[in-house]
Design brief:
Glycosyltransferase; repeat; three-stranded antiparallel sheet; mainly alpha; 23 helices; two-stranded antiparallel ribbon; globular; disordered N terminus; 47% helix
């Protein structure tokens, strides 16, 4: 039955009413409890690191990888079967994000993994899954990457997959089409696939499986869907490429394979990681397997060890994270603790700041291909990811260090200066900032059959741009027309004006902003309001007021805010969804920055107070992080803890004036 998001939970409503008379005392107690809870989670090295959960396809693909390499007996894969079964929903399928009603491709991959783990098709759970999958159109309607994984074990015909000629590797970076026009995540995943798609291997697994029962109609490759526009040229081109491959007429094929192999080996970290994300790591391991590398080769053993470190094992279950986020988690927790009143010289903050300083990346990465003037100085998301620092992480780390410097103040200042210079050099021509690259915005790449996740590029976005501008404001530039950035001369006024104009142009008619990396318009709107209120509270007052009014209009009757991931596909769902602690915190922070709307803000605070657990934590089963809008979502297990504390801390600071 569809949940009615507009109806407040009776217990929460009553709790909120009971808090009216003692709000200040409850606020202090909640902040103290939350601080103690977060401090208890700090690792001995100084960082914070929460689990990062996605849909089950990542875990399913790990089952496939170990079956292909023959390394399955040395991993607790039986626990993966327990995890996959636990994630199956009552309708028989598996979800892309919590509460979405089930998703076809994810369900097919989960079904595949369970069959590889020895679960028979006659099992009642598998029968329910099969019914769900067939009702959604079967294997023929799945995404390209699901079909790719099935092709590796003979459950789908390679001819139903798009051609990706290896010669792409040989195109120079100045050429209009080259691998550096892809987003960093697409690049790290695609280069190894050039090898796999060229070799088209079919591996025999134990047990060997067929998935014919998941086809609707004939067991045959599905044709690519034509759009009736210019993008159909890609389908015609694919036909020509397949015929050229059949006739062995693909130019520079061997050279392209060798170049791709070199690229993969050069970008493997000493720890075995590739790009810090499982898709790049998985595909690189598949490429080495297709090239007949030994399981004992150092690149293979390191790669497998790196993948193992992404695993989460409990007494009963074992699953794989798509990525790990210690730098991001640490910087955001530091900000929450600082904003809620923990002294800047508190030992926990000092230790965390010292750890962050050691994580700054001082070597060049892929970003330097399109950014010829910038010098290193960024931070990445993960423990190890030298080739791919990102702007968003770097800006948040700078703000964390500015609020709570390390035990080495001079080194802190130098690190911040390097970061500012690097971020400034990453500003895109449209005026905003993207996550990993400069001017990575050729949207036509998403029209290729291979790009059906619509994540082939990394254009500048409102939320990342807002983070940079918030950083500028936090570092001392409170009046754009009169003051200069106190920490650096990195940002020229003209460049800041371009960024501000970009944000004005990105504002939606309703007053909100799109959220690329968090779900969704609540995240984007809160981020932009925070930045604009710091830098241009008067000259952009119209934008601020419209954004704040939109946020207030989305408040649920229980006092909280929530937004479903469906809003990426259905704009009528902007700002609508069951209340969550993280999204409520974002809304409260946005309203606090904008000013006014005291009643809505106070109601949001009551929601956070009434939903807090006795140990200072919050619960949140909804998925509020975004990987690829509409296609891949993330559940950051620490979002539900530090964002509410940040909101409570800022509210208390604003109330005390």
């Amino acid at each position: 039955m569809q949940t009615d998001w507009t109806q407040p939970t009776a217990s929460l409503t009553q709790s909120a009413q009971n808090l009216d008379a003692t709000l200040d005392a409850a606020l202090d107690a909640a902040i103290d409890s939350s601080q103690r809870y977060l401090l208890s989670l700090q690792h001995s090295e100084g960082y914070w690191w929460g689990d990062l959960e996605s849909n089950v396809s990542i875990t399913a693909e790990m089952v496939l990888l170990h079956k292909i390499w023959g390394t399955d007996s040395s991993r607790p894969l039986a626990k993966m079967a327990v995890y996959l079964r636990a994630q199956q929903r009552s309708h028989g399928g598996w979800e892309l994000f919590y509460g979405d009603g089930g998703e076809l491709s994810v369900s097919v991959e989960a079904y595949m993994a369970l069959r590889l783990l020895g679960v028979p098709a006659s099992d009642p759970d598998m029968q329910r899954a099969r019914a769900f999958i067939l009702a959604q159109g079967g294997i023929g309607k799945t995404r390209i990457f699901t079909k790719f994984h099935l092709a590796l074990i003979g459950c789908y015909d390679w001819r139903g997959l798009p051609s990706i000629p290896a010669a792409i590797m040989l195109l120079p970076d100045w050429f209009p089409v080259n691998i550096y026009e892809m987003s960093s995540w697409a690049r790290g995943s695609t280069v190894p696939l050039l090898i796999v798609f060229d070799r088209q291997p079919v591996y025999v697994t134990e047990p060997a499986i067929r998935l014919d029962e998941l086809y609707v109609g004939a067991v045959a490759p599905a044709e690519f869907t034509r759009s009736g526009d210019w993008s159909d040229l890609f389908i015609e081109l694919d036909g020509w490429l397949k015929r050229a491959a059949d006739w062995n007429l693909m130019p520079f094929r061997a050279e392209g394979i060798r170049a791709a192999e070199r690229w993969i080996l050069e970008r493997q970290e000493q720890t075995g990681d590739w790009a810090g994300i499982i898709p790049a790591m998985l595909n690189s391991m598949l490429a080495l397997r297709a090239l007949n590398y030994s399981v004992n080769d150092i690149s293979v053993t390191r790669g497998l060890a790196a993948i193992d470190r992404f695993g989460v094992e409990t007494e009963a279950e074992y699953w794989t994270q798509p990525c790990v986020s210690p730098v991001w988690d640490t910087a955001l927790v530091m900000r929450a603790l600082s904003d809620s009143g923990l002294p800047a010289d508190h030992p926990a903050l000092r230790q965390a700041a010292d750890w962050l300083l050691r994580q700054q990346i001082l070597s060049y990465g892929d970003w330097a291909v399109k950014n010829r003037s910038g010098k290193p100085g960024g931070w990445a998301f993960e423990f190890v990811n030298q080739f791919y620092p990102d702007v968003d992480d770097t800006a948040v780390v700078v703000m964390a260090l500015q609020a709570a410097p390390s035990s080495q103040p001079q080194e802190t200042g130098q690190a911040i200066e390097r970061a500012l210079q690097w971020i400034a050099s990453m500003q895109c021509s449209e005026g905003g900032w993207a996550a990993f690259d400069l001017d990575n915005n050729q949207d036509w790449l998403n029209a290729m059959p291979y790009g059906d996740l619509k994540a082939m590029i990394d254009p500048n976005t409102a939320d990342v741009t807002a983070r940079v501008l918030e950083m500028v404001g936090r570092l001392g530039q409170t009046n754009l027309g009169q003051a200069s950035l106190s920490q650096s001369a990195a940002f020229a006024q003209a460049d800041l004006n371009r960024a501000l104009l970009y944000l004005r142009q990105q504002q939606e008619p309703e007053g909100c902003w799109f959220g690329r990396w968090g779900v969704n318009y609540i995240y984007g709107t809160s981020s932009v309001l925070t930045a604009l209120a710091l830098l241009v509270p008067q000259t952009y007052r119209d934008c601020i007021e419209r954004g704040a009014a939109w946020l207030a209009s989305c408040q649920n009757p229980d006092g909280g805010w929530g937004e479903t991931g469906q809003s990426y596909r259905d704009p009528t769902l902007k700002g609508q969804g069951p209340s969550t602690p993280s999204q409520t915190a974002w809304a409260v922070m946005g309203l606090l920055a904008a000013g006014g709307f005291e009643a809505a803000t106070r109601q949001g605070i009551r929601y956070l107070l009434s939903s807090q657990n006795p140990d200072g934590s919050w619960d949140e089963i909804e998925t509020t992080g975004t990987g690829f809008p509409g296609h891949f979502y993330l559940n950051y297990h620490l979002y539900r803890q530090h964002f509410p504390l940040t909101a409570l801390g800022r509210y208390r600071a604003a109330a005390s004036g």
